[in-house]
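FYI - complex with 4'-deoxy-4'-aminopyridoxal-5'-phosphate, inputs then prediction.
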Amino acid sequence: MTTSAELYERACRHIPGGVNSPVRAFKGMSQPPVFIERAEGAYLFDVEGKRYIDYVGSWGPMITGHADPDVLGAVRERLDSGLSFGTPTAIETTMADLICEIIPSIDMVRMVNSGTEATMSAIRLARGYTGRDKIVKFEGNYHGHSDSLLVKAGSGALTHGEPSSPGVPASLAEHTITLSYNDIEAVHECFEAMGEQIACIIVEPVAGNMNCIPPQPGFLEALREVCDSHGSVLIFDEVMTGFRVALGGAQAHYGVIPDLTCLGKIVGGGMPVGAFGGKRDIMEQISPLGPVYQAGTLSGNPLAMAAGITLLEKVCQPGFHEALSTRVETLCDGLETRAHEAGIALMTQRAGGMFGLFFTAQQRVDNFGQTMACDAQAFRDFFSHMLESGVYLAPSAFEAGFMSSAHTHDHIQTTLMASERAFAAMRQQ
Ligand code: PMP
């Protein structure tokens, strides 16, 4: 049997850090990354045959569980027709119609191949539309790895200690203004000082890349207001929250409507897909209708569309998101209770089908500074104990957790029992 440790050693020879995306590397953890062979429902199975209850869900897409038979069936059905044509296909229109129906703020949508492409293109569009260069983002929000957005970023950039990456020209980064999440005052001050130069605000409407931080009441509304009064474009990066926090995303949940929305993860059903869309007059600036260029050889790929459409149709089922939130509540309440019984300071935050675990005595965590102040070593210890017990959490204190509809009451109870052992072991350390 080949072990994960052996595969990792081999991977490191020809792949930087042995991984194709940094957060997979288990940075700071006591064990090497687990190599997964297959997955089904709520479970991952590693190359050594060990089974894990998975709360990562491929970082979001697997909202109905892994290897969903309907999604796989849809892909299989299209497979024999060919992988890619580089021409328009009917299925792309089906996807566009479905997205516009589920998210009413989207009049027109363009498909791309990743969340990074979606946000990068939305930023370019906002700049092209307004004729302005500056953009506003929030510290610890992650919008993919394009140059303008890799400034004080979250997710792997944060886990690996490089929130502002070398290689991003200072002359470009200077156009990215970074403010503190949930700080309405800072947003007002910034717009008073230079509002007429700001093309857009891009925000994770629930921050999921510095753990899980929901917006404080009034925060998203304030962003909408300053954008309206200064002619700037409001972009919600719903790559993570779209179809997860609620069917219509965070914008439906919080009732604040952006001008542009970025999508990813669930919209591709596990295939490499992203999308950006929004108001018609802005989207009409995109080539070939308008002058803002954006393109993609494989964009709207038929297999990816088949997977994504099938998954979207499944999450449209009545009661889907209510049931998902209930599962999150059960898990998070159960973890908090068991931690407190063991004398461990744990606080959880939730938004629909996503959640965050904070090892802290604070009642709330609202921004990057507060998330950084939590006990990262306690998280690492918890992660290791849970992994040992067959529960796979995101290998970083800065990532949100994801629930799926394949997680049953039994999976959650098994997870909670594992947490009891973990908390007991942590107390003895
Ligand atoms: N935006 C957000 C909010 C994300 O969470 C991510 C990825 N986790 C991205 C953008 C980038 O997406 P991708 O990794 O598909 O490029």
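The mean pLDDT is 96. The CA atoms of residues 45 and 334 lie 25 Å apart.
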